[in-house]
Amino acid sequence: MAARSTIIPTIHRWIAAVMAAPIAAVALWLATPAIARADEAVVAPFSSARGTQAPEPWRFASLPGKTPTRFEVVQEGGKKVLKVEADQSYGNLVHATRVPLNPSTTLAWRWRVDAFVQDADLRSRAGDDGAAKLCVFFDFPADRLSFGERTKIALARRTTGEDVPTEALCYVWDQKEAKGTELVNAFTRRIRMVVLESGPTGTAGNWLGERRNLLADYRRAFGEEAGDTLPDVIAVAVSADADNTHGHGLAYFSDIDLRSVTSTRSAAAVLPPARAGTGE
Q1: pTM beyond 0.70, yes or no
Q2: Residue 68 gets which letter from DSSP?
Q3: Which of 89, 93, 92, 91 is nearest to 67 (CA)?
Q4: Which run of H or of E encompasses 226?
Q5: What is d(CA 159, CA 13) in angstroms, rounded to the nearest whole number?
Q6: Which one of 25, 149, 180, 202 has the largest count of C-beta atoms within 10 Å of its C-beta?
Q7: Spatial separation of the C-alpha atoms in residues 268 and 23, rounded to whole Å
Q8: Is 2 helix (H, G, I), strand (E, B) or coil?
């Protein structure tokens, strides 16, 4: 029983970390979206929201008994953006999709952090909180994982009824860790984190723009495990939590631009190497 009592909390936090907790209305993973064309809007823009809720197929995901992080579409500078406020809370806004991972696959967005979770510490379970994270889920074959990891994921899937993803890469704006820091999540090796921005910008209300080449980042994070395998991107998620530290965080996100050319033959010539985060 001791071993099981250790595994269960780990699985529960893993489910939380990859934004695959049970959802009250619609299961995110029951339907597999078709492969998107390069000219399609792969991720529904927040700016298209008719009210304060993010447009479908964005869905909120959390854990039972947790105070929910608040996700709200608001007007900022004449534009609709996503306001994310964590107050001793936990939550994720998840958008299911399916696009191929190849040299053309890019992710771009703008974000700003007005309040950091003061006691957050990405290196510890007790401090595994943050005001602003953008995560990407990959459909890596579970049969390529170790027996222990397969067992945990299988148990998580049975517990939640969700098709819990096998790999997640999270981009983080942290207050303490240096820009460029790459970390393994404190709860599970199935989640890797990249600190894109660190600390305040120096000017209140300043937005920063990011553009990432997902294949390059994926290979740095999971290349040793994946080898030549290129799993599809199956979801993106905006995440913010302050439940472990009982703190508060406030951030904003612009529309998220995820795109990929379906044909890998032409993908390499479509886009130049993605830059690291750049100010706008």
Answers
A1: yes
A2: B
A3: 89
A4: helix 214-226
A5: 13
A6: 149
A7: 38
A8: helix
- Inter-residue contact 172 to 210 (CB < 8 Å): no
Instruction: Categorise residue 227: left if φ over 0, alpha if ψ from -120 to 50, beta otherwise.
Output: left
Domain locations in the chain as residue ranges: 2-279
The rounded distance, in Å, linking the Cα atoms of 50 and 77 is 17
Angle at 235 between CA 137 and CA 52, to 5 degrees: 130
For domain 2-279, the question of CATH label 2.60.120.260 is answered with: yes
Residue showing tokens 């299961």: 27
Shortest CA distance to 118 belongs to which of 226, 40, 200, 178? 200
For 109-133, write each residue's pLDDT tens digit.
999 999 999 999 999 999 999 999 9
Residue with tokens 């959390």: 62
Q: Give helix 2-17 / helix 147-160 axis angle, nearest 10°.
A: 70
Element (H, E) at 111: strand 106-115
For residue 75, with 0-12 CB atoms within 10 Å meaning exposed, 13-18 middle and 19 or more buried, which class applies? exposed
